[in-house]
Amino acid sequence: MIIDKTIHTVFCDRCGTDLFEDTGYSGGDMPFVESDLESQGWLILSNKHYCTKCYEYNDDDEVVIKDTCTCELPIIRGFESECYCLKCNKPLIKDEQK
């Protein structure tokens, strides 16, 4: 029997991390996804979703979305010196340029 089934997941709006990336699951129905968001510590703010690597709390317990990219998947475009993050498309600084 063939059954069409919709499976949901969530991607971080900042870095592109999949909610189920490290869990062994590929997704689930919406109640499952929503409960997993909470149990894994993801943040929903202004209808955007943030993984635990992409936000923190400041000294006043206010949420701060991190500015710097946490991705480590570079892609090289054109010249070797043009290195960008594969997930968020921000330019990456190579070790020798630091």
Largest sheet: 2 strands, antiparallel
What spatial form do the alpha-carbon principal axes imply? Answer: flat
Number of strands: 6
Structural class of the secondary elements? alpha+beta
Strand numbers in spatial order across the main sheet: 1-2
Strand content: 15-25%
Poorly predicted parts: none
Overall pLDDT metric: 77
Order of helices and strands: HEEEEEE
Using the CA coordinates, give the radius of gyration: 17 Å
| Helical residues, percent | 10-25%
Continuous helix count: 1
Straight-line distance between termini: 57 Å
Short description:
The protein is α+β, with helices and mostly antiparallel strands and 98 residues long.
Write the layout of secondary structure elements.
Layout lengths: L29 H10 L3 E3 L2 E3 L4 E3 L5 E3 L8 E3 L6 E3 L13
Antiparallel strand pairs: 1-2, 3-4, 5-6
Walk me through this protein's architecture.
This protein has 98 residues and is of the alpha+beta class. It is 10% helix and 18% strand. The chain contains one helix and six strands; from the N terminus they run αββββββ. The strands form three sheets. The protein has a two-stranded antiparallel sheet. Strands 3-4 form a two-stranded antiparallel ribbon. A hairpin with a 6-residue loop joins strand 5 and strand 6. The chain starts with 29 loop residues before the first helix and ends in a 13-residue tail after the last strand.
